[in-house]
Fold each of these.
Amino acid sequence: MKLKTYRKIVNWTMLSIASLMAVYGIFWLFWILGSLLINGFKYFGPELIYLDPTPAGVEGGGLRPAFVGHFIIATLATILGVPIGLMAGIYFSEYGQNSKFFRVLRNITDIMVSTPSIIMGAVVYAILVKPIGHFNGLSGAVALALLMVPVIAVTTDEMLKLVPQQMREAAYALGAYKWQMIKSVVIRAAKVGILTGVILGVARISGETAPLLFTAFNNAYLNLNLMKPMSSITVTVFNYVMGPYHYWHEQAWAASLILTLGVLVLSIVARLVLHGKITNPLAYMFRRIRKEA
Amino acid sequence: MELEGVIEGKLSEVKNRGSLIERVVKVFLGFWALFVGLLFPLLILFILYYEARLAIEKFGVINFLKSTNWDPVAEDFGAATMVFGTFISTLLAILMAAPISIGIAIFITELAPKWFKPIISTAIELLAAIPSIIYGLWGFFILTPIMANKVEPWLQDKLGDVPIIGQLFSGIPTGVDVLTTSLVLSIMIIPFMSAVVRDSFEMVPSVMKESAYALGATQWEVVRKVVIPYTASGIAGGLILSTGRALGETMAVTFLAGNNPQIPKSLFDSFTTITVTLANQFTEADTDIYLSALYYLSMFLFLISLILLSVAKYLVLRLEKRWKV
């Protein structure tokens, strides 16, 4: 009898601790997002987006070059990175399954997903900044693209593996070549999953700072030339937080809020796409909450 | 007769074209797969080595790792402070995050009601979606003052006089130190760790758990004696995977470490890591040997994380293989 109570107490204690751990995780999320929302909205004004920065020390101004630059770099990185990642992912799933060599490569790709992002900046510095002689926006985009490629390859591979084998066999039975089968059956069946992976990849690179520090660098002026240093939101926030002026800190909060909202919205959209409910996310969310409650 | 010939000709033409595309597509896709999985990592390694060769020749491996001197003016570089800083902050972060992540995984797989599961999983995953610079900004403006004025003086008051560990809480609490950095790092890796642990927990066949319940085990006993032993390698994999993540974390650490090249003697000392040094000094490196030393540091970082992540991958794969049957 005594043993039984003891076991019950242990059970209850340990499970309560586990629940407390979950609360602990949520606590930080709310604290971080909460202070970001409060400070971000406090200092946000529309001029942040359409005004250029004032000379250092002069209050006012905005971060237009950073927003424009960030958009250009992220878009270019996506254009460069997604096709390569897709092709590699398709090969891993459709051709490489039975080859031991490519299975090993697939696992290496998995490892590459977690490479420290600052390494990518250093590598691209060596191949694209040093030879050219100065920092440039293109190198920033390449660094982000390289960071994105393994992510896309891994998710594509995983999504294609979810396509039932019977569908492939049905296409073969109709006399299709493998490339026809991939093009019209596998990719079509997995396109939602692939799209999710792409959006998650974009979300990941959009928040990156380290690879841009010594590739795209920074620029106080609006610059559309890829061969010149290009500003980005993340690098600007980094510099502004380290800087001495109070209004810089305020602008850093506001810019961070926009950045975080953008990244979080992308992550959430990716989830909705995966559930096939992108057309009407609100109704979907409402239905889901009702169903779950 | 003639018509048949024409049809036959067309047919073989289509066939030829089809198989030609077949081969081209295969080679083309295969090249990119080869690139992503093999050439790309090799290229990174080669470039880092090539750029670092000056420093490798000058300082050697052991001396570079042993020396605590980092003096760009005298062109004397040693990595001991950075490597130590990277290891100590990562280790503390793992120690802080591991019990939390396992607790979260237990909560999600065993305790949470079905409707609550997606909510808590999403919330934890959102922690991973927040860009690392936001952690740095938040840590710098919000957490650091609280640590410096409330938490650290309190810790010092309670633990400062305890023999042996009292040393860890000596010094002036500034908030920009080992403790704050590790704390923020631990929050950042919780989502990765708990995701891997949760996935391995979910791989345990319910038959195994049900047999334990049938023997009268409590829920905790099932977790402790069935789930955890059978997912040990998955848990280890998750721990090591997040170690790899924490090692390479740059922006948050750059704000919080203080960028002070010294071996920290207490938790309240400022310090530096490999990534902090890279982020702060890369654009300032004005001599070849300086830049080369920085590349040497990145090569170390890359190799360490590559090895750790491979071990993690191996452990997780082993677990998957076991349950695949």
Amino acid sequence: MTGIVLSVAGLCKTFTRGSGLVAAADNVSFCVKSGETLALCGPSGSGKSTIARLVMRLLDPDSGRIVLGGQDLTALRGEALRRQRSRFQMVFQDSTAALNPRATVYDAVAAPLRIHNIGRRTDRACNVGKLLEQVGLSADLSARAIHEISGGQRQRVAIARALASKPDLVVLDESLSAIDPSLRLDVLRLFLDLQQRRSIAFLFISHDVALVRAFAHKVAFIEHGKIVEQGRAVDVIDQPQSALARAMIAAVPRLKEL
Amino acid sequence: MILNLVRTPEGFVGTILLGLLTVWALVAPWAYPGDPLSIAGPALLPPWTDWSLPLGTDRLGRNIAAGLMYGARTSMIVGLAAAGTAILLGLLVGVAAGFIGGVVDETLMRITDAFQTVPGFLLALAFVSVVGPSLPVVVLAIALGTWPPPARIARAEVLSLRERDFVAAARSIGMRPVEIAFREVLPNALPPVLALSSVIVAAAILIEAALSFLGLGDPNRVTWGGMISEGRTVLRTAPWLSIFPGIALVTAVLGVYLTGEGVVEAHARREMLL
Amino acid sequence: MTLLSIRNLSVQYHNANESIPALKGVGFEMQAGEKLAVVGESGSGKSTLALTIGNLLPAQASVDGSIDWPGLDGIPKNGRDVGFIFQDPGGSLDPLAHVGTQIAAVAQYHLHLTRWQAREQAQLLLANVGLDPQSGFFDAYPHQLSGGQRQRVAIACAIAARPKLLIADEATSALDTLIQADILLLIAKLVADTDLALLFITHDLALASEMGDRMAVFQSGKLVEIGSIAAVVGNPGTPYVKRLIASHIGLLSPPLVTSA
């Protein structure tokens, strides 16, 4: 698929919290092209996770449109929406919480294949093995239970599962924060490799500005549900205009070597 | 898992007791072939006088030892079947209520309240009196009185599991709600419900004994409750008629409770070391 | 003056099936008032080190080797000589007590103050950590505060008895970048104002280089390299440390993508 994969226009969502209304998304609009990564960057409470869940249609927006490759997702409900889900997937932050602890690795990765009838049933075990190898895990891991494998392995299983249905868009919700720094580069290179080969669009939610600068093509800084600055990642981060971007960039710890 | 269970003191004793009872129940047709309700010897024979009738006979001359062994079958069948039915019913109601929410949740919970306000034994009693005594009816009657606690616990677990990320993740890969409820949520809601199972089995055995004691058990089967009831009139002269089935009842209930405690303890120990 | 001297420290966790080594033959020293940053990934043993020094290991752990405190007279007492800040901001606070009362309790117990003196001390501490006691923070419950505010309370509790060593075990990992920066500034200020020594545990290399005078790198339970920041970062001696530095992603690293 080429061109614009995800187009979000005028997204609004408010929650009642305690004494008043909190705007998690306030007239948010952005788009992501195929083969491109857009990062949503902001402090906790800025609404970036809520926007991710709105895009994934796990929450209903109060108003606004979400269009995925020409299909208006906001207008879909129930079975029609479920059928579209193979085209957009999410990797959650905490893989320990995001995978059924009692399931096996095979169950987790094969689920999207089974639900959307991808591939023949007889080939399924083989396909699962291939998906595991793609994310750098051995195919023998299929039989192990989720709670038996390490945290890093769990995150890779979550990634394998997200890629199983060959989606056009993958939402990464702080997906790298649980991975050790020395392994992060490997996972990033994996994402980039897949992006180049399959033109996957990534929506990358993160509060790590250095990571965003390295990995994303474009960035949008979000505060209180509003986009305060957006543009090419390297440009915005090297020369921030908004107060929020400046503060977040100043807060990044620097490796003192000189 | 079984090994861990046996390592705990409660589990050890409980498993031995239950093991003995199971053997007791299984061996019955070989040890005493034929109908245990048939007359085997002179009436009111004291125990340990005739070795073919080691525990004596009752008022009609029926073999008490045979009665105990066949009674064990009835008690275990009823106990397990009733508990199984109660837990199944409770799970279905609890998961449906917790998962669907809204009006369905409210309705199901009010029904659960209604069943819970009536004491389990009285409910069973009323049911059997109306429908008539037979084994399936007794099982159903006991289940009717004991399903609300599993339902509540299942619902509470589902309510908390529903908010967890793996349910959201299951939705995001396109799983249908029914599949999420049974594949993802139910297996994780199961452990606390199963922890109740030993209590329910024990309660079922006791309710069955009480029903039989009142003459509302299955008349075609030997039951410990029935035997105790039979011994009421001759309690002073031939106390063994009631004492032996009484001991068997205590052993069974104790065995179930201790095994249940052992499972919980073994599970807790394993969790602590993880 | 040497505050802490560790020699050949080994820690193992025991369960029914096996013994898992967490630290193997670790040895180093800390001076009074020094800031030592401990860097390691998951499984490196850095948290076990923090718990061992802080005397907080669970019962199933066994310790070999020695930890000496030449800088203190006698065995260190938790809370009085060593203060501990955990990763979970609210986890170490009693959810049912006012935060001010909790801070005062530490001061009262270890400094042998009267209730009223301890209250005053607590109010001072709250102000010191940036929570104005006049704004009602003294009587707040932990759940009424944000993550960053809870961590400030935890810091106040940790320093209330004027310890000699403050151990921060991934104290900012659960907070977002902006709040993390504030808390780190606070810790740096508190350490600079007193003669407090700081043991700063983190998995973030850049953070370690900012917060410490010296850095110690752990891998799989072993101390692989220790030295000044300039020495370890500028001239790493071991392949593991070289790899850690090479895989670090900072604002000056070349981007991995070429954007149009």
Amino acid sequence: MNNMLKSAAALGLVAIAGTTLLTGVDALTADRIAAQERRVILEQLGQIIPQSYDNPLLEDRILFRDEHHFPKGQLVTAYRARQQGEPLAVVLKFSAVNGYNGNIALLVGINSNGTLRGARVTAHKETPGLGDPIEIEKSDWINGFHGKSLENPESGRWAVKRDGGDFDQFTGATITPRAVVEAVRLALEYFAANRDFLFDTVAAPAGDPAP
Amino acid sequence: MTYRQIFTDGLWQQNTGLVVLLGLCPLLAVSATVVNAIGLGLATTLTLVFSNLAVSLTRGVLRPEIRIPAFVLIIASVVTVIQLLMQAWFHDLYRILGIFIPLIVTNCAIIGRAEAFASRNAPIPSIIDGLSTGLGFLLALVILGAFREIAGYGTLLRQASLMFGEWGESMQLTLVPNHPGFLLALLPAGAFIGLGLLIAGRNWLDSTLTERRKRAHKEATETPLGAVSAE
């Protein structure tokens, strides 16, 4: 009995020591980690919106769901870029769900006039070497969205070439670019139908869910 | 056991990745490029050094029946500290290594060294054991990473800026210009094949060295002293 208590006490002490250490390190690094995370997302957003915005981009965001355009009940984040209060562009952060392997996390930047500013894939599990040219680091395929809109190309041609559309597929991979093209088109359609909602809704309070 | 022995054991005789074959999951998953390999190897080495030190310091206090949960607590704390520090200072590298940093906890090599060495030895030998085991793992990772990166991309040290900052951008060596990319080397299958070749290579080198040492030993004892001085 005595031994058991001693063991329990020793284990408890180890746990307390570990927790104390972690609390200390967490307190030391929390600010820096938050700053790093902000830097990463600002860098990503900065690639696909005009640089002339003057509002706090990360705070001026709303969260919403829309089953028709963003399937599987996902929570979409919209970051609004404004200049002196006038809407410049919005970045939608969501996932394409019909890739070859799992979700493809996307950022889609749309100018206030409905043209695409650009798109970026921020995370995916597509086949390396076949599906991964959707990454900007691997090829400039994703830059093909720049300047496109729902009218350009017209609606029937918003697809990869194999499906009779205007966008290139990759050798050996059609499903991946098809998923991205479709997701971008749906995002544009959502924007066209909900432009005022996207720009005029009051920003969601800071805090969870994290940006 | 001398420090020298501890060191050669960790690096060569008992190399975690190539002889004991522990921690293969991160070894196979993260060795597609040299920079990833160095990142995970260093994080694992740090974990081993500090977990060995902590285990060694508690070796008189912890009763045998609770040592395993205590080791797990210690290792998990050390790994979480390293994870937080990496997130704060090497954020981009952390994002690439991702889940494999927290998964260092489950690398059996670490609890193995705690149980087999640190819980029975003084702090300084335990630190040296952790260091040599970690460096042995790092070595296996980097060699495998170099093979796979050269075969897969034709480069060495690509994305070095993730670890060394802007200074690292000029570090990439392009060994094969206009390399078309060799997918097999980058996929898990390539990792298995590479690891197999690496283990075979180590065994071959080891047996050749032992053979040579034996022969040298034999010659040294058989040669009459006079014959050496006559030359």
